[in-house]
Amino acid sequence: MEILGSLGLEPVETVGNPFDPMLHEAIMLEDSTEFEEGIILQEFRKGFKIGEKLLRPSMVKVSAGPGPVKPEQGDLSEGANVGESTETSETTETSPGAESS
Questions:
Q1: Which residue of 4, 24, 57, 58 shows the fewest CB atoms closer than 10 Å?
Q2: pLDDT tens digits, residue range 3-32?
Q3: Closest-CA residue to 65 (of 23, 37, 95)
Q4: What is the 3-class SS of 27-92, one letter each residue?
Q5: Count of C-beta atoms within a 10 Å radius of residue 44
């Protein structure tokens, strides 16, 4: 590796840096609350360049930013109660009409 380094070969920097399509090949996206969108989370294959010329891009996993907000459990139970009360009121309305016929 020393000989290649003396010829100007250097690895492409990845983890923790912003994704650059000219240097990196994204093979995965992952939701992350730790990192902003577009930050490299993991390197699968090291990339190399000589000077400014890219020899091989790095294969990386990139942050997609925080995922969609999950509703809280309190919101779900309130929604279920609304649906149940609607069904109950419909049943109550139908019952008197059926008795009068």
A1: 4
A2: 777 788 999 999 999 999 999 999 999 998
A3: 37
A4: EEEECCCCCCCCEEEEEEECCEEECCEEEECEEEEEECCCCCCCCCHHHHHHHHHHHHHHHHHHHH
A5: 12
Does the predicted TM-score (pTM) go above 0.70?
A: no
Strands 58-63 and 40-45 turn out to be antiparallel
Tell me which H or E stretch contains 94. Answer: helix 73-100
With a CB cutoff of 8 Å and minimum separation 6, the contacts of 16 are 39, 40
Q: Which of 34-38, 41-45, 89-93 has the highest mean pLDDT?
A: 41-45
- Beta-carbon-side half-sphere exposure of residue 12 (alpha carbons within 13 Å): 27
Q: Which of 40, 56, 59, 37 is nearest to 48 (CA)?
A: 56
Taking alpha carbons only, the member of 44, 3, 49, 40 closest to residue 18 is: 40
